[in-house]
Design brief:
Order of helices and strands: EHEHEHEHEHHEHEHEHH
CATH superfamily: Alpha/Beta hydrolase fold, catalytic domain
Distance between the termini: 10 Å
GO molecular function: hydrolase activity
InterPro entries: AB_hydrolase_1, AB_hydrolase_fold, Sec-Metab_Biosynth_Hydrolase
CATH architecture: 3-Layer(aba) Sandwich
Keywords: Hydrolase
Number of helices: 10
Protein name: Alpha/beta hydrolase
Strand content: 15-25%
Shape: globular
Structural class: alpha/beta
CATH class: Alpha Beta
Number of domains: 1
Pfam families: Abhydrolase_6 (PF12697)
Length: 237
């Protein structure tokens, strides 16, 4: 039995993991979805990446979690990287779902072309970034597997994301402890980049990293929740 702390990506709360959490419980695991500051429906434009790192560390410490797996989807992989470096012996595994660890000093915005970053900035209201329309999301992320019901759920429950978390560089240290198991769950586009040998991803495409591929789009917790649960179990076995 593995305890999984599940950290969602931008605009989403712990609710996004409901289907995967149910499937993990059916396998005998202990899923613990986490909602980051500002993503619970209470706007927090002052929240930044450091806030979200503290959220994860505090969650693990307050629940006295040990030998657990820390999972980050998309944007969630960035605070997961910062938190993993601070959790010490508490942490057994880290898993990135359609994401990868940034290096110290990098920002979420550094993953985007400058014109895309400026387009996002133009959407900010009071320090918050609303979830873009799906036709805009599709320009950078695969929507494969998302039904109209999934999209309606996301549209209804997604909340504006604190934009400072995109702007703030990842603070050091950002290295995983040697004992921590590490894995990537790669969906359509991410699998393609790994197969293409993108230099920035070379280090996570070889041991000691484990890789599990899922034939679906960027939001597998909606499109393939049970398959994602199985992939997480495989990645931490």
């Amino acid at each position: 039995m593995t305890t999984f702390v599940l950290v969602p990506g931008a605009w989403l709360g712990g609710w996004a993991w409901a289907g995967t959490a149910e499937a993990l419980r059916a396998q005998g695991h202990d899923p613990r979805p986490l909602t980051l500051t500002g993503l619970d429906g209470t706007p927090a434009p002052e929240a930044d990446l450091a806030t979200h790192i503290k959220d994860i560390v505090a969650f693990a410490e307050q629940q006295d979690l040990r030998e657990f797996a820390l999972v980050g989807h998309s944007y969630g992989g960035i605070p997961v990287t910062g938190a993993a470096a601070r959790l010490g012996d508490r942490l057994a595994h880290v898993v990135y779902v359609d994401s990868a660890p940034l290096t110290e000093g990098m920002r979420m915005l550094d993953l985007m072309p400058p014109e895309a970053a400026e387009q996002l900035r133009s959407q900010i209201t009071d320090g918050l970034l609303p979830m873009p329309p799906f036709e805009v999301l599709a320009q950078s992320s695969s929507l494969a597997g998302l039904t109209e019901d999934h999209r309606e759920l996301m549209r209804t429950r997604a909340v504006p994301h604190p934009f400072d978390s995109y702007e703030q560089p990842l603070p050091g240290p950002a290295e995983l402890a040697p004992h921590v198991g590490r894995a990537i769950v790669a969906c359509h586009d991410f699998s393609t980049m790994l197969d293409a040998g993108v230099p920035a991803l070379a280090s996570v495409n070889r041991p000691p990293w484990r890789r599990v591929d899922l034939a679906t789009g960027h939001w597998p917790m909606f499109s393939e929740p049970a398959a994602l649960a199985a992939a997480l179990a495989t990645a931490t076995a």
